[in-house]
């Protein structure tokens, strides 16, 4: 077992976490504007805390407010892609 | 039956297999624990000495605070064993002299390097209630931040993309917010 950072969970430590550099990060934090993104595989960094994101789930953009506990997870984990099946008798309802 | 921390270890089983009855101890860890307590590979639970059982219980109750394993220096490559015809008394006096010398002077501080696997994993061992609590805390954390993993746990469904049309019985059994096993 090699020592590696727990947050990387299998990724080489020398690479660091994968993330997307959002150009409007500062603006989003000051003006409280949501960042609309499709980068679901972007790791949530400590400087993302408090920013609102609109994360694509394949169909539309779901709001995600980043909190301190989410650091180290991916953005996509918070925009669910599957809808629970509900049986409807008629299509037009 | 031997009871260690309230867990029954069956008498007839090999010690290294019996140890896997403990939640959080698999074959690898059991083997390491046996090596640490000087329990040989074919030792059955019934053959364990009371001292070994008490040291096992002492180690498992707090692996992090257990004293480090003493490391004895090995014989040097230039060591030559005495010939078989040497009288026993001569060897005994020699050994007694050596032990006397060692007691007088502290043993050489040169520590043998650890094997290539890195640090000894045993001090960070977590078993039984501690481990169960950790698992439950991790699930509660996922649920609290509202991630997909937490959601799947709440639904009692597989977390890592397995099929759910059939099977998924392990997930139905285990995946809970308040996981028991």
TrEMBL record, chain A:
UniProt keyword list: Ribonucleoprotein, Ribosomal protein
Any one GO biological process: ribosomal small subunit assembly
Gene3D superfamilies cross-referenced by the UniProt entry: 30s Ribosomal Protein S19, Chain A (3.30.860.10)
A molecular-function term among this protein's GO annotations: structural constituent of ribosome
Keyword Phosphoprotein tagged: no
Matches recorded under Pfam families: Ribosomal_S19
Gene Ontology CC terms: mitochondrial small ribosomal subunit
Keyword Zinc (UniProt): no
Family: Belongs to the universal ribosomal protein uS19 family.
PANTHER family noted in UniProt: RIBOSOMAL PROTEIN S19P FAMILY MEMBER, SMALL RIBOSOMAL SUBUNIT PROTEIN US19M
Protein name: Small ribosomal subunit protein uS19m
Species: Jaapia argillacea MUCL 33604
TrEMBL record, chain B:
Biased composition (Polar residues): 161-172
GO cellular component: mitochondrion; small ribosomal subunit
Gene Ontology molecular function, alphabetical: RNA binding; structural constituent of ribosome
Organism ancestry: Eukaryota, Fungi, Dikarya, Basidiomycota, Agaricomycotina
A GO BP annotation: translation
Subcellular location: Mitochondrion
PANTHER family, alphabetized: 30S RIBOSOMAL PROTEIN S13/40S RIBOSOMAL PROTEIN S18 (PTHR10871), SMALL RIBOSOMAL SUBUNIT PROTEIN US13M (PTHR10871:SF1)
Keywords per UniProt: Mitochondrion, Ribonucleoprotein, Ribosomal protein
Region entry Disordered, spans: 102-124, 159-181
Organism: Jaapia argillacea MUCL 33604
Protein family membership: Belongs to the universal ribosomal protein uS13 family.
Protein name: Small ribosomal subunit protein uS13m
Function according to Swiss-Prot or TrEMBL: Component of the mitochondrial ribosome (mitoribosome), a dedicated translation machinery responsible for the synthesis of mitochondrial genome-encoded proteins, including at least some of the essential transmembrane subunits of the mitochondrial respiratory chain. The mitoribosomes are attached to the mitochondrial inner membrane and translation products are cotranslationally integrated into the membrane.
């Amino acid at each position: 077992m090699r020592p590696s950072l727990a947050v990387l969970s299998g990724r080489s430590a020398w690479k660091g976490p994968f993330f997307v550099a959002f150009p409007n990060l500062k603006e989003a934090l000051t003006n409280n504007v949501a960042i609309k993104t499709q980068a679901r595989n972007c790791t949530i960094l400590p400087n993302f805390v408090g920013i609102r994101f609109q994360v694509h789930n394949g169909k539309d953009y779901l709001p995600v407010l980043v909190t301190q506990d989410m650091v180290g997870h991916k953005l996509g984990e918070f925009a669910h892609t599957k809808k629970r099946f509900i049986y409807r008798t008629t299509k037009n309802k | 039956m031997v009871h260690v921390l309230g867990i029954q270890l069956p008498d007839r089983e090999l010690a290294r297999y019996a140890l896997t009855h403990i939640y959080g101890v698999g074959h690898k860890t059991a083997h390491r624990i046996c090596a640490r307590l000087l329990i040989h590979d074919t030792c059955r639970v019934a053959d364990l000495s009371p001292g070994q059982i008490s040291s096992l219980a002492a180690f498992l109750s707090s692996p992090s605070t257990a004293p480090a394993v003493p490391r004895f220096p090995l014989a040097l490559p230039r060591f030559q064993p005495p010939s078989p015809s040497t009288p026993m008394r001569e060897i005994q006096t020699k050994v007694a002299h050596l032990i006397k010398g060692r007691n007088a002077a502290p043993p050489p501080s040169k520590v043998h390097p650890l094997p290539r696997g890195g640090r000894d994993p045993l001090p960070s061992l977590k078993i039984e209630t501690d481990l169960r609590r950790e698992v439950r805390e991790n699930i509660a954390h996922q649920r609290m931040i509202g991630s997909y993993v937490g959601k799947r746990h709440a639904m009692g469904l597989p977390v890592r993309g397995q099929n759910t049309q059939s099977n998924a019985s392990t997930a139905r059994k285990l995946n809970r917010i308040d996981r028991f096993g």
